[in-house]
Write the structure tokens for this entry.
Amino acid sequence: CEDCGKSLIGECKLHGPLIRAKDRVIPSRARLTLPHYLTLRVLELRAGNQQILGVFAKKVIQKRTQFGPYVGQLSTKLTCYDESRLVLQVLKDGGKYFLDTPNEDCGNWMMFVRLARNQEEQTLVAYQHCGEVYFTTVKPIEPHTELKVWYAADYAKFMEASAVFIKEETDVSPLPPVAKEPVDPWICSSCGSTFATFALLESHQCIHKDRV
């Protein structure tokens, strides 16, 4: 204790406990790599406070926009499996390896992109190039749209999976108008705070940037 000059085991009975200062909580490596025009949104909260996240566009993203490479640990066995995410493998030095992401500090933001369940909701295609995996947009992505991915045809053969083909825009028949679902709240990927509009979220994120 600096006040009474004694070395004590535990708290000083005369001057009381120390004031404990905690380190600031920082986002994971994966969240820090998220491009500024994308955002993470919590889609579901499961048991044990496990968050199911999705990646959404904050502005229009043009067709043929490339993201990557996907960051993960090369492994002969997949230690972390999520049925909502793509299983990815690469060919390196003659061997076939999984891109494993057991936690958010082992990967980049691409680990949060969910797989497309059908042709209509697919916005990205995954493929291998020079031993790395990249995602590229197959059509313009509108704001508030979730980025969802499936394998390119050649990569699907490599992964021994079925291919989902995206029709050219000229071949797509116009669909009848449907009622839009209510927009979910925007969630800050740094602290988890929710906002009704993107403008409010953006102004809140400026505070995080100023602090950094």
